[in-house]
Amino acid sequence: MRVRLTEQARTELFEIGEWIERDNPERAASFVEELYDACMRLGEMPNAFARIRSRPESGIRMRVYGNYLIFYTVSDRVNVLHILHGSRNYEAILFPDA
Q1: Does any domain span residue 94?
Q2: Which residue range forms the structural domain that includes residue 63?
Q3: Is the dihedral of CA 33, 43, 41, 15 positive or negative?
Q4: Is residue 7 part of a domain?
Q5: 3-state secondary structure 46-82
Q6: Residue 73: which CATH number?
Q7: Nearest alpha carbon to residue 42 among 81, 98, 87, 3
Q8: Residue 76: inside a domain, yes or no?
Q9: Which of 21, 56, 60, 78 fits as disulfide partner to 3, beta carbons 3.0 to 4.6 Å?
C-alpha cells in the first residue's frame, strides 16, 4: 500500500533532525532516515498497529519508533499525519478542539 506523509509530518521529521543535530550531528541524518523508513514500512502491514485508545473512532493509529510516535490513518493509502516525540501531549495536537 502506498504511504504519504502530510506536509505537517514532513515538517516534524525535518524538525526532529534539526533537534538531534544540536547534540549529535553524525546521528541526526541516519536517525531521520530510519524514522522515515519506519513510516514507509507502514504500507506493508498498515493495520498492524492499534488505533489510539482514547479515540478509536477517529481511525488514527499509532506506531512507536524509539522515543517517537508516528500517527497515521489507513484508507486507500497510509496517511502519516504526525511524527511526535513521546513526551508531547499528542492528544492536544491531534484533537485541538476537544
Answers
A1: no
A2: 3-86
A3: positive
A4: yes
A5: CCCCCECCCCHHHCCEEEEECCEEEEEEECCCEEEEE
A6: 3.30.2310.20
A7: 3
A8: yes
A9: 78
From CA 28, how far away is CA 23, in angstroms rounded? Answer: 9
- Could you tell me whether strands 78-85 and 3-5 are parallel, antiparallel, or unpaired per DSSP bridges? parallel
* Angle in degrees, 0-180, between the axes of helices 25-40 and 7-23, rounded to the nearest 10: 150
Residue type, 97: D
Percent of the chain with pLDDT over 90: 96
Mean pLDDT, to the nearest integer, of 39-53? 97
pTM of the model: 0.95
Q: Is residue 97 part of a domain?
A: no
Give the list of residues 6+ apart from residue 52 with CB closer than 8 angstroms, or none: 58, 60, 61, 62, 71, 94
Beta-carbon count within 10 A of 39 CB? 22
